Amino acid sequence: MASQILPLELIDRCIGSKIWVVMKGDREFVGTLTGFDDYVNMVLEDVTEYHSTPEGRTTTHLNQTLLNGSNIAILVPGGEGPEASS
Questions:
Q1: For residue 84, is it left (φ>0), alpha (ψ between -120 and 50) or beta?
Q2: Half-sphere exposure of residue 72, counting CA atoms within 13 Å on the CB side?
Q3: 49 Cβ contact list (under 8 Å, min separation 6)
Q4: Comparing C-alpha atoms, which of 29, 13, 16, 18 is closest to residue 72?
Q5: What are phi and psi of 14, to 5 degrees?
Q6: Which tens digit of pLDDT belongs to each residue from 27-85?
Q7: H or E element at residue 8
Q8: CA 33, CA 1: separation in Å to the nearest integer?
Q9: Can you say whether the dihedral through the CA atoms of 75, 56, 26, 61 is positive or negative?
Q10: Cα(34)–Cα(36) distance, rounded to whole angstroms?
Q11: E strands of 12-82, at which residues?
């Protein structure tokens, strides 16, 4: 019998690790996951925010940020962000 892992358990295993978060819309965040709740609201530290505009991609560095779980589209554990995938 194969073991099953629940989504929140997988996210819990990522605490303290780097994570790439793709939001609905045109923003992406790469940082260290420090916490989350049952709604997948997330706290990231040492964050790089990527914002895509018609003029190109801008980056902003943040010490800490809180992401609303209802706006998260994709989570990539250990992800290096959009610059690494280019």
A1: alpha
A2: 18
A3: 27, 28, 29, 59, 60, 61, 62, 65
A4: 29
A5: -90, -5
A6: 999 999 999 999 999 999 999 999 988 898 999 999 999 999 999 999 999 888 887 65
A7: helix 7-13
A8: 31
A9: positive
A10: 7
A11: 18-23, 27-36, 42-53, 56-67, 72-77
Q: 40, 42, 39: which is closest to 31 by C-alpha? A: 42
CB of 77 closer than 8 Å to CB of 60 = no
- Does the predicted TM-score (pTM) go above 0.85? yes
Cross-strand pairs, 30: 20, 48
pLDDT band at 2 (very low <50, low <70, confident <90, very high): low
Neighbours of 4 (CB within 10 A): 6
| Residue recorded with tokens 């690790």 | 17
